[in-house]
Specification:
Shape: globular
Number of strands: 10
Number of helices: 10
Bound molecules: 5'-O-[(R)-(carboxyoxy)(hydroxy)phosphoryl]adenosine, zinc ion
Radius of gyration: 20 Å
Structural class: alpha/beta
Strand content: 15-25%
Order of helices and strands: EEEHHEHEHEEEHHHHEHEH
Strand order of the largest sheet: 3-2-1-4-5
């Protein structure tokens, strides 16, 4: 008998994930097979190894998610699978697996934009987002601000011209010898240091666009010239520069457009410094802050499942083809 649940599958980068979610965003199961142990050796994601690892674990990961949710494949309402953006070899593993399962189980399969998944992560477990909203998406691959009039009408305000903020965190982590993944390690070290180094804030005064490569290079140059510097002070000063940029741009967007809430999503939304900074800003402006639960800020399949619900019964079937580059404004 058909159950009112969707299976989400995520394999765009270095996590193989499967989850079962209902239409209200309740998560019946969420399984994540991390590849950190494989990529930490290289200090970043090694694409060929990522796709091979996805291929090895994708079926057992899905089996576990279904078992934990007590759902049989043929009884699913649909399957939602990340179709992009991401590493093409990794995406193909998830998309082809989903296509095969959908055919075998006679269940519809919807290709989901990973960025839409992050956006919908803010409504997991509890409905939080109120419209219209301003969205800050900060992940390893993307950094942008957007306006959300409805769940399907997304207007991009500005994105990064070069690196994403997550990429900058990861590169600074490497410069500081903190290993991979770098974001949480930089945050932790930053808490023990002083914000004493005046790193640049690129494009701080320029509209809604971002740039982080100059900041990352400035950290590298500073470390070359000051090999004895306390790394905790470098981390604290770097995080402080990132936060000033992100919070200033959010404030600008909230002052420029009517918004019920600020939605902050993507892996860097796991940063306690960003969570605190966004909370202070929203308090000051009297706007609601919508954050995903901490464990669903970074890549997961529950957010992909919830995003898939948006397409059911709308007459719109997003394409299933794996696509490495996909904008937030595309399906
Ligand atoms: O959304 P995500 O899991 O994957 C992509 O879609 O890219 O984001 C990963 C990024 C990485 O750059 C990672 O360093 C960063 O999110 N990240 C953090 C934290 N946790 C993960 N950055 C800052 N503070 C954190 N606590
Ligand atoms: Zn992501």
């Amino acid at each position: 008998m058909s159950q009112d649940v969707i299976l989400g599958i995520e394999s765009s980068c270095d996590d193989t994930a499967a989850a079962v979610v209902d239409r209200d965003g309740n998560v019946l199961s969420s399984v994540i097979a991390s590849q950190t142990h494989i990529h930490s050796h290289w200090g970043g994601v090694y694409p060929e190894f990522a796709s091979r690892a996805h291929a090895l674990v994708v079926v057992p990961t899905i089996e576990r998610a279904l078992k934990e949710a007590n759902v049989e494949g043929p009884n699913l309402k649909a399957i939602g699978v990340t179709r992009g953006p991401g590493l093409i070899g990794s995406l193909i593993v998830g998309v082809n697996t989903a296509a095969g399962l959908g055919l075998g189980w006679n269940v519809p399969v919807l290709g989901i934009n990973h960025l839409r998944g992050h956006l919908r992560s803010a409504d997991l477990v509890e409905k939080r987002v109120e419209l219209p909203a301003i969205v800050l998406l900060v992940s390893g691959g993307h950094t942008f601000l957007a306006r959300l009039e409805s769940l399907t009408e997304i207007q991009l305000l500005g994105s990064t011209r070069d690196d994403s903020v997550g990429e900058a965190y990861d590169k600074v982590a490497r410069l500081l010898g903190l290993g991979y993944p770098g974001g949480p390690a930089v945050d932790k070290l930053a808490k023990t240091g002083k914000d004493s180094i005046p790193f640049p804030r690129p494009m701080l005064n320029d509209g809604f666009e971002f740039s982080f490569s100059g900041l990352k290079s400035a950290v590298g140059r500073f470390l070359d010239k000051n090999p004895e510097v306390d790394h905790a002070d470098v981390a604290a000063s770097f995080v402080s520069a990132c936060m000033e940029i992100l919070i200033t741009k959010c404030r600008r967007a909230l002052e420029a457009y009517p918004a019920e809430c600020l939605v902050v999503v993507g892996g860097v939304a796991a940063s306690p410094q960003l969570r605190e900074g966004a909370a202070e800003l929203c308090d000051r402006l009297g706007v609601k802050l919508c954050l995903p639960p901490l464990k669903w800020s970074t890549d997961n399949a529950a957010m992909i499942g919830l995003a898939a619900w948006d397409y059911l019964n709308t007459g719109v079937t997003p394409p299933l083809s794996a696509t490495a580059s996909l904008k937030i404004t595309e399906f």
